[in-house]
Design goal:
Layout: H1 2-20, H2 24-35, H3 38-45, H4 48-63, H5 69-92, H6 108-117, H7 120-138, H8 142-169, H9 177-204
Length: about 210
């Protein structure tokens, strides 16, 4: 039960961080909301449910073919810790948030799908963090993997939907100090996970 909760918490943290940290997709969520309404922003927010399917499939397909699985997962976990450390650094040193809300024609969901497909972060996440975590969860049972995936996608999509709704009603919130403090706090949590991934990687390589 504790391990299942641990995977759920991991999914929640990663989902929230990916959901509210400044980036191309969140910018588009805000842009569409300000230009049209919250519904348009919500359409962009759900686009990861479309774009992540092929990315996740390819990540699992490639990683499952490694002959020395533990060694490969060790190296990937260390790579994941570096990526998490980078994200933590960006979040911790965020002093203000600016979004370039460009003017484009509508078709919010289509724009969200294209933006996320061209964004390198989902690929980096699934190859270095997401897929290895799911493989580890499957070492317990399918329910641990479901806990991680549910926590991740509910918070990833849910937080972006919340940003769209808040932006529609209180557009100044995303420029407030409160928002910056939330981003910084998540950065600190990401840093803790970076150390955890580093430890897991060293253990899989027999160096810990």
């Amino acid at each position: 039960m504790f391990e299942e909760t641990s995977f759920l918490i991991s999914g929640i943290v990663f989902g929230l961080t990916a959901g509210i940290s400044p980036g191309p997709l969140l910018t588009l969520v805000i842009s569409e909301t300000l230009r049209t309404n919250s519904t348009a922003g919500i359409k962009v927010a759900v686009s990861p449910l479309v774009t992540d399917i092929p990315v996740v499939f390819v990540a699992f397909l490639i990683l499952s073919r490694f002959s020395d699985f533990n060694h490969a997962m060790g190296l990937i976990s260390i790579s994941g810790s570096v990526f998490l450390g980078y994200l933590a650094y960006v979040n911790l040193f965020t002093d203000d948030v600016e979004f370039d809300t460009w003017d484009l024609k509508s078709q919010s969901l289509k724009k969200g799908v294209i933006t996320n497909f061209l964004n390198p972060h989902p690929y980096l996440f699934w190859f270095t963090i997401g897929a290895p975590t799911v493989f580890k969860a499957l070492g317990f049972d399918i329910y641990h993997a479901i806990a991680f995936l549910s926590g991740f996608y509910v918070c990833l999509v849910g937080s972006k939907i919340l940003v769209a709704v808040i932006t529609g009603k209180y557009s100044k919130f995303i420029e407030s100090k409160t928002y910056v403090y939330i981003v910084k706090t998540l950065g600190l949590v990401l840093l803790l996970f970076a150390f955890k991934f580093l430890g897991d990687g060293l253990e899989l390589l027999g160096m810990w």
